[in-house]
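Below is how a single chain appears once it has passed through the pipeline. First comes the sequence as given, then the structure the pipeline wrote out for it. We keep one example in the README because the format questions we get most often are answered faster by looking than by reading.
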Amino acid sequence: MNIEPVLFYLFAAILTAAAIAVITVRNPVHAALFLVLAFFTSAAIWLLLEAEFLAIVLVLVYVGAVMVLFLFVVMMLDINIVPLREGFIRFLPVGALVALLILTEMALVVGPQYFGLDSVAAPARHAADYSNTKELGGLLYTVYVYPFEIAAAILLVAIVAAIALTMRRRPETKYQNPAEQVSVRRDDRVRIVKMAAEKKPDNRTAP
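Resulting structure:
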């Protein structure tokens, strides 16, 4: 009996349950922990597909760095969950429609002709010196170089937008002007005051 399909369905069921729990639990810390579980199970599925590099990157980058940052932010900020939960039932049909559209797109893109269970049940055997990292880099920078560059540009725009949103000018906050600091002169900051010297009185008494 081949164990790969059993492991695939097991990890897929855990991944689906963890993904549903991320958007349904009320505690944001629990949601972040369920997202960590989803990342781990996704890495396990990638290991079944012999994509060791992607699995390691997912665990190291997302679980080891991004999710730790999320947990710090969620636990340090006093987030009021009640206003965030308001209107959940009202916007549920719109959310269900968007979820259905995303599910349809995933079914069309990630179809059985590309990522079927056959590749998991009977994976292709490679040589001992085979490197999926080299194969992935070759595909990214040759076949998919333009989508890769477009994705990089979109991420750059997202970083600039995030910085612009967080750098809002508030009237009660003081800001420094680097141009004024660089163009400052000595006479503007230093003033030399000339004072006459004073002789210290002699307190010694004459005999």
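The two ends are 119 Å apart (CA to CA).

See the next section for the split statistics.
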